[in-house]
Amino acid sequence: MDEFSFINSIKPSTYRQSSMIKGIGDDAAVIRESAEDIVTAVDVFVENVHFSRETMNPFHIGYRALAANLSDMAAMGATPTYYLVGAVVPKNWSSGELHEIFKGMRHLADKYAVDLIGGDTVSGSELTFSITVFGKVRKDKARYRSAARPGDIVFVTGTLGDSQAGFHILTNNQQSESNSYFIKKHRMPTPQIEFANALGGINRLSLNDISDGLANEAREIAEASKVTINLLDEAIPTSSNLNQFSLSLQHQWKYFGGEDFELMGTVAEGEWARVEETAEKTNTLITKVGNVTLNEHDKHGEVYLFQGVKKQVLKKEGYTHLK
Ligand code: ADP
Ligand code: MG
């Protein structure tokens, strides 16, 4: 199949976003927005760096790639609206597999009425996708990492470490009925869009999505806000089945595993009840995991982990490219 018939085959037959004027089929897409702020982000996924055929079906590859992008929108408090996909396709991927990848993306996009409005398709040596996502957020309501203040509560959604547990199970051939939960969390994570959007009424909120592990995400907020974040080990929510793994693996996955695409955030103590209400309304698990302080000697943002009476600096250890 050539590029043109491929593009034709992934072209949506209808679009859901009312601001869409021109979708796939011209030199560029056209959107008309007026009152809201536009939020945009791009992520690149390379075979054998970000995903592999060993642990994912093509459908999951597409689903998870778009989930990572939509999760960035959630972390900004934005509602996703559009996405564009740049694809570099090598010869060893069939058009059927390629379709499955786009089907995986569409499956998730349909859930949030996000429209595919363009992209580029070229051949090359390594399967690579670049997904650009657009979203909208009420004027001046984007949720920045720099918004944490001393006295804030630190919270996370969901349970942490599940995705890495799933990856471990898949790569160590430990698949079983009781482990299918972790595999699903690895292959088909849910971006926390509804919850993040429903927090729209809250005045000040810092948010980050957990793509590189809680330790990293907490540090990004601490640094951007110039505050100290204190995390309480015993408060970190995990799935009960996670305790089948060694304590050191659990620790590694909880703080450095990432790819759970849950949210972490900070909010004033006085707004916590509203956050809890919102979580209940959107059927989201949220847990208070620490607090924000201002320590004179950590002017550049530090993250501490409290385990019983032990206090240690939580270093960043997630995966860093170009290192
Ligand atoms: P041009 O030569 O003007 O760049 P293309 O032939 O690359 O046009 O693309 C034609 C149309 O198909 C454009 O609207 C483009 O956005 C869309 N398109 C191409 N590849 C993809 C893709 N991988 N995903 C979504 N849309 C695509
Ligand atoms: Mg092109």
Structural overview:
- By secondary structure, the protein is of the alpha+beta class.
- 31% of the residues lie in helices and 26% in strands.
- It contains nine helices and 13 strands.
- Strands 8-10-7-11-9-12-13 form a seven-stranded mixed beta sheet. It has a four-stranded mixed beta sheet with strand order 3-6-4-5. A two-stranded antiparallel sheet has the order 1-2.
- Helix 2 packs parallel to helix 3 and helix 4 (162-171) crosses helix 8.
- It is globular.
- It starts with a helix and ends in a 10-residue tail after the last strand.
- The relative contact order is 0.16.
- The site of adenosine-5'-diphosphate has 13 residues, from helix 1, strand 4 and strand 5.
Write the layout of secondary structure elements.
Blueprint: H1 3-10, E1 20-22, E2 30-31, E3 37-46, H2 58-75, E4 79-89, H3 95-111, E5 115-123, E6 128-137, E7 153-157, H4 162-171, H5 180-187, H6 193-198, E8 205-209, H7 214-225, E9 228-232, H8 247-257, E10 263-267, H9 272-281, E11 286-293, E12 302-307, E13 310-313
Helix pairs in contact: 2-3, 4-5, 4-8
The protein binds adenosine-5'-diphosphate (ADP) and magnesium ion.
Adenosine-5'-diphosphate is lined by residues 7, 10, 24-27, 85, 87, 116, 118-121.
